[in-house]
Every structure is written in C-alpha cells, then in structure tokens.
C-alpha cells in the first residue's frame, strides 16, 4: 500500500492499472516556474514539492507512514512551459501553438518515505496534426482541455489531434508506468505481487 498525493483522476486510473493499492492524499502547492528554471528542473521540483506537501499532510493527520508517490506533467513547446489553461481563450491559443508541431510532454514522478526521495523524469515527443482555429475552438468547447497541461488529453477527444508519439503514452497521460514501477521497487513496492 502507498499514498498517491494527487487529485488527478488519470493518475489514480493509471496506478490501478499496474495493481498497486493506494490511498489518495490531497495536497496543494504553488505551481509557478522560477525565472530561468529549465522545464526539466521545473517538473522535477514540482513533483518533489508535491511529495513533500503530501508527507506533511500525512504527518499532520497522524496517518501511518507508507511510501508516497506524486507527479507533475507539463507540455513544453520550444522553451515554453505550458501548464493548464486559465480560460478557453488561452486553451485555444495553446492548442494553436501546438498545431502541426512537435512538442515534449514531461512528467516527473517523486517517491518518498520521509528518509529518501527519488525523482524520475519521463519525456515524450508528441507530433500534432495541423488544425485550424475552428477545430481548436470546437475541441475547447468539449470542456476536455480545461484541467490538462497543454490544453489537450491524449486519452480523450484530444487523440484526434495527435499524429504520433515517441516515448511513454502513460507519461503523457500523467503517470509513466514503467518508471513508476521501477522507482517504487526501490521502496520495496512490487506491482501486482502486492495485491
Ligand atoms: C498532455 C496531457 C496532460 N494530461 C493531464 C495530466 C495531469 O493531470 C494534468 C497536468 O497537471 P498536473 O499539475 O501535473 O496535475 P494535476 O493538477 O491534474 O494533479 P495533481 O493533484 O497530481 O497535481 O494534465 C492528460 O490527462 N492528458 C494529456 O494528454
């Protein structure tokens, strides 16, 4: 059993997929890149801060100690970090900047047990099909982009916009499963054997 410090329904589904029992913990952090911070450093720092915040919540609620997993996903276009859009207009602009181009989806995971913390980064290249503003607006109107980095979800209607990927599909959705299983094994947690 582990804690999943995440409010993302996608992360819960993905963790279920590899048969790791977990208890969800809710925690909040400020997600703002520092000046001159690289996208890689930013997502790794976010994942680590979520793990630290989750550990603090666990302690404050007097819950039993167990390894805790957190993650952070950003879409990176050139050197620009695209988080979740603030409004439909911004979602549309984000989508149009991705149209016909290749971008990176970076997901960092962090696992801590209070003594050691391991952070691992997964980067996937995503090639988008070219599309126009009308199509972007129609997609935004579905509501799907609002809570997703880069304003799309590859696991939903957004799949229509994706031409190809090179890397980890689960990493794009928000939790790279190979890396997650690998890091959890460092904490004695083994997928499906722990069911
Ligand atoms: C690119 C992409 C992102 N996403 C999602 C994954 C993440 O949930 C979200 C990025 O936001 P995050 O800040 O990484 O995570 P979150 O706020 O949803 O959840 P948490 O409580 O763990 O902080 O974008 C998809 O679901 N599909 C996609 O194709």
UniProtKB/TrEMBL annotation:
CDD domains: Maf. Its EC number is 3.6.1.9. It is an enzyme of class 3 (hydrolase). The keyword Cell cycle does not apply. InterPro entries: ITPase-like_fam, Maf-like. It catalyses: UTP + H2O = UMP + diphosphate + H(+); dTTP + H2O = dTMP + diphosphate + H(+). Its cofactor is a divalent metal cation. GO terms for biological process: nucleotide metabolic process. One of its GO terms (cellular component) is cytoplasm. It is found in: Cytoplasm. Transmembrane segments: none annotated. The record marks 10, 73, 155 as: Important for substrate specificity. It holds the Pfam family Maf. Keywords: Cytoplasm, Hydrolase, Nucleotide metabolism. The keyword Cytoplasm applies. The active site is at 72 (proton acceptor). One of its GO terms (molecular function) is dTTP diphosphatase activity. Nucleoside triphosphate pyrophosphatase that hydrolyzes dTTP and UTP. May have a dual role in cell division arrest and in preventing the incorporation of modified nucleotides into cellular nucleic acids. PANTHER family: BIFUNCTIONAL DTTP/UTP PYROPHOSPHATASE/METHYLTRANSFERASE PROTEIN-RELATED (PTHR43213), BIFUNCTIONAL DTTP_UTP PYROPHOSPHATASE_METHYLTRANSFERASE PROTEIN-RELATED (PTHR43213:SF5). Belongs to the Maf family. YhdE subfamily. This is dTTP/UTP pyrophosphatase. It comes from Endozoicomonas montiporae.
